[in-house]
Amino acid sequence: MVLSPLALLLALGAAATALAEPLRFVDCGSIDGSIQEVNVSPCPTQPCLLHKGTSYSINVTFASKIESQGSKARVYGEMLHVDVPFPIPEPDGCKSGIQCPIKKGHSYSYLNKLPVKSEYPSIKLIVKWELVDDQDQMLFCWKIPVQITS
After folding, report:
1. Which pTM does this prediction carry?
2. Sign, Cα dihedral of 48, 52, 57, 62
3. 2 has a pLDDT exceeding 80
4. Extended beta strands in the chain, E state
5. Which CATH fold would you assign to the domain 26-148?
6. C-beta separation of 78 from 126 below 8 A
7. Residue 30 and residue 14: Cα distance in Å, rounded?
8. Cα separation values, 138 from 72, 86, 95, 122, 148, Å
9. CB of 55 within 8 A of CB of 29?
10. What is the domain partition of the chain in residue ranges?
11. Tens of pLDDT along 115-142?
12. Are the beta carbons of 129 and 146 closer than 8 angstroms?
């Protein structure tokens, strides 16, 4: 079977679009902000396969519903409904792509890294990522399924 150039172009375009799709995520309590998009790169399919010894780029686009002088990220690996803290290199949101002070009604792109250490076990879990404002209220909270692998 020979594909016409148009059919081939459409198939390639569909494949490229599929790779660029934002992640499906669960909002787990965004109160002071609303999430517009979550991207983890590279993660072409879900659950995200996180390879040990690799660092992943996190990009969250959100709109703030409040004013805040600062923000702080907290990341957890959720296993059996227990949140286990997951260290990240830079918890300060103002050093992670957000221009502070945060203004009500403005959209922001939060950028960070998720390092997967070699000593982590090979397991399936839920990554829970929170960003809180200067009053410890949730600017955003999202969850995605992942699988840590060698």
Report:
1. 0.83
2. positive
3. no
4. 26-27, 33-41, 48-51, 54-64, 71-79, 82-85, 107-116, 124-133, 138-149
5. Immunoglobulin-like (2.60.40)
6. yes
7. 32
8. 10, 18, 18, 30, 27
9. no
10. 26-148
11. 999 999 999 999 999 999 999 999 999 9
12. no
